[in-house]
Design a protein that fits this description.
Layout (H helix, E strand, L loop, with lengths): L1 E6 L5 E2 L4 E5 L2 H76 L5 H73 L2 E3 L4 E2 L19 E2 L7
Helix pairs in contact: 1-2
């Protein structure tokens, strides 16, 4: 329902497009203001979720082709250095053993070099394990987290876009209803009020009167 704020006089001859009735627009204006606020708010949320989605997409590639490669190469470099250290320690141990057999080195010197070989082997084995863990577990876990976040970001963005569509639709509906608050003549003719027509039992259309959907006005 709505309130009539102006109506053309009974018996007036009008042309197509002439105004016949004006209805109160206050409620529509409030609806438009409210819907505009929500439309802007949801659009802001959609833009934020779009940015989050793009970051989530980039994060997958950044790890898989960036951080993971750097971490793997770093460990492989460490492994190569430790492998060289182990070979050096083994050569020194062999040398110490020969010198000890010739009487130039003590058993303590041999034990020291043996310990150096053992430590180098442990360091090398530890790095090998770290490489295996990175390739077999860490990479898969990290990618699972990142791709899960990507799917969640995509779902949130889709939901936000649905809200944008819904709020824009409500805003468009309110704006269309605002246009209907001004009733115009569809063709030329004489205006006849209910009190002068055969349907005179219908409510009188006058300023301040309340009219309803599907009601014949004039």
């Amino acid at each position: 329902s709505n309130t009539v704020i102006w109506v053309v006089e009974n018996g007036t001859y009008v042309e197509p497009g002439d105004e016949l009735v004006r209805l109160d627009t206050l409620f529509m204006e409030e609806q438009i203001a409210e819907r505009t606020k929500y439309a802007l708010w949801t659009r802001s949320g959609a833009e934020q979720s779009r940015a989050n989605l793009e970051r989530a997409k980039l994060a997958v590639g950044e790890y898989e082709h960036g951080r993971y490669i750097v971490a793997l190469k770093t460990l492989q470099k460490t492994y190569a250095v430790q492998e060289a250290r182990l070979l050096t320690a083994q050569d020194l141990l062999d040398h110490e053993k020969r010198m000890a057999e010739a009487g130039y080195k003590s058993e303590l010197d041999v034990e020291e070099k043996t310990f150096a070989v053992t430590r180098a082997e442990l360091d090398l084995n530890l790095t090998a394990i770290q490489i295996e863990v990175l390739e077999q577990f860490t990479k898969k876990e990290e990618l699972a987290d990142l791709k899960g976040n990507l799917r969640a970001s995509a779902a949130r963005h889709e939901a936000n876009e649905e809200r944008v569509f819904a709020d824009n639709s409500r805003l468009e509906t309110a704006e269309k209803e605002m246009l209907h608050c001004v009733v115009k003549a569809e063709k030329a003719g004489m205006v006849i009020h209910p009190s002068s027509a055969r349907w005179k039992n219908a409510p009188e259309v006058e300023e301040g009167a309340t009219v309803h959907k599907d009601q014949v006005l004039l």
